[in-house]
């Protein structure tokens, strides 16, 4: 229903058809409908896909309008992220949630903490998507419930309710797009299709897939990455698009990730049908050694290249090695090919957060695909302080500035905190997202694992104080006092978990017979 009033009219019409619905209040039923705007995960996927398409078009017109997200490993984390965004900025616009396969592996697997190597149960991914949207929908219901309490109080007092009704009808939902990591697809293209469907049905509107071998997948910031030929990756892009179309999510977004910059291996040699085709380009990157047929070993794999007989460099594990310094050329070909075959956004894993380096690759891609734009991982695997201090030092040296006051082998030293170097490096970090979006085609900035680190840090700080000299003061001053003074809703944890919402439902269902939790003796009234 589009508005509270139209929902009331709808319930009134239905009640007229049924003579024994006298206990159902039109206003209460309409209220519950408005508080539960999204009935299914597919409703969410269609709604959020349209948001992403709108944001992408706005970015194409103005590169200052980039989008952002933080990675969430639990529905509550995602919910509190959106609460904070709305509290401090009044809207959830241009803000998404990132679902990281790394955090699923490390924090949500039934096998326990795992490395990011596609070892976790793949069903955990759609389950987490559903969990996140359950918490975001509950956030909508809770805030709207508070508005309806205001509305009822205003009506009882005979006050004008126009402003409150406008807040309800123009409510900015906490439900935002999720970019969901499907790793390398968890198997063949049929497996990718089936898992994609489950993820979309849970609410995902954007699927991120990488061009690594499924059964040898590594974290993008680890060694030992093995890429697949383009034909294999295209099959999985097709599988994802078919899943979106089958489920009616026509605006679904595919993020194609290339790990080629850091990968030096491939598992198989594709079949080239004619010179210069896609398979041929891929094979040309493989490192080879020229040999005479007499020197060939039994069961050797041999290729003909430029009229000569060559043997691909092969490791003891059977993997083939790419020629050195072909990584950027492979990245460009990966990205162009992905865009030519149905991908909407690109993801390039880089070794450091360097705008000029990203721009160099994106400019080459845009020569063939001007619409190219990136999802970029502002990764916790980067040492952000060290990288920007190094970049500043390099820039100063290029400008001829004296940098002898700084030990380039110890730039992380706290001795440099508060110095000119520190100020310049921190300014570069602060402006990195703006600069990368303006100069290097980054549409979406995300931090993959931020809440993994913030959880560890906050628990560490609390434990250090609580089990030490501060005792309960560590919690009172370090947590609760800050919550109260910042106006963080979670300080009233009973209400945050749905107690007030449940009380109002009980009253709707049972009237004066309702046994409610929010009475005078509820200790939450202290806040």
From TrEMBL:
Q: Which GO terms describe its biological process?
A: carboxylic acid metabolic process
Listed Pfam families: ICL
Which cofactors does it use? Mg(2+)
Sorted alphabetically, the keyword list is: Lyase, Magnesium, Metal-binding
Q: Which domain of life is it from?
A: Bacteria
Residues annotated as catalytic? 219
Protein name (Swiss-Prot/TrEMBL): Isocitrate lyase
- Residues annotated for substrate binding in this entry: 100-102, 220-221, 257, 377-381, 448
**GO molecular function of the protein, one example?**
metal ion binding
* Record's cofactor remark: Can also use Mn(2+) ion.
Write down the Gene3D superfamilies for this protein, in alphabetical order.
Answer: Phosphoenolpyruvate-binding domains (3.20.20.60)
UniProt organism field: Psychrobacter pasteurii
Question: Which amino acids does the record list as binding Mg(2+)?
Answer: 181
Q: Which reaction does it catalyse?
A: D-threo-isocitrate = glyoxylate + succinate
PANTHER family reported for this sequence? BIFUNCTIONAL GLYOXYLATE CYCLE PROTEIN, ISOCITRATE LYASE/MALATE SYNTHASE
